[in-house]
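WARN no homologs supplied; continuing
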Amino acid sequence: MLEVWTLRLMGAGGFGVLGWRLGRIVSEVSTGQDRLLPWGLALALTGVPLGALVTPYLVLKPLKKAVEYINGIPGPTLVAGTIGLLVGLVVASLLSIPLYTLDGWPGLGLPLAVTFVLGLAGISMGVQRAQEMQAVFPPLDSRPSPNGVVKPPKNKAILVDTSAIIDGRIADLTVTGFVEGALVVPRFILDELRHIADSSDPLRRNRGRRGLEVLGKLRQEPNITLEVLDVGVQHSAEVDSELVHLARSMNVPILTTDYNLNRVAELQEVQVLNVNELANALKSIVLPGENLRVNIVQDGKEPGQGVAYLDDGTMVVVEGGRRFIGAAHDVVVTRVLQTAAGRIIFAQPR
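OK structure emitted
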């Protein structure tokens, strides 16, 4: 509130002086004499309330938009762009030294043009090299300790995709402590979740609401850091493409269950943490010849087969197990088949 009134006072004084000067110019043009009355006084009195009224809107609104835009830029990109700007300005100052010796407007205009062009070029090159510059200047936590051991970075951020939020297993996974670092949810992911939750399709609406509930659960966990990054879709209309671009600029992995996003991110050298791949990796390892006790629940595809499931969801196909449907039975593992959909165990009754 204090800064608003300060701006109003400064604006009133500035516009008052501007109105006074403008009034004297109008008086000199109209009458041929530089007089304070009536134009100077009238325009000065008009400029005081006008300046007090419009100055906060002329200063605070653009300043707020600029701060929001800068806050939405990833840290490595902002630092790299700033370094590129400084390098561009240094080069421009060196190249402009001989230009100041020119007579007339070239002596002023050309140095300004060179400074402007090289400054923009420096920002552009710095932003494009953000990832490489981050590799040259690693985080403090990853620098060697006095004993020569390199410490891994702590609390590294992880971007979370919409599919991983809706899936829900992320909540149980992070509670266990196996996922280190802050979970970062960009604003455009929240917007996508909101659109899904507002869908007219009941299935999509339930999925969106489930995702919002999962975020609420994560927010309430004291040992989990959940951050919302105020970044909208800027570079493309595709949310997945924007997420990959953001992950590359921040040099952080993406947590997802989306197979297509997984492949696209890997092609662009972005690390992906796929919850489905983790679930498959954690399934029980069963070797041929081991004994299992399973509950056969349904028929198999082939005649006489029965199908059971382990606690982790792994399918067990029991040859000749159709007659044991609805009951628990001891089986012997004969072979294990790994497919794209998961692991399938084949067994025979004991």
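Confidence is low (pLDDT under 50) at residues 139-155.
OK
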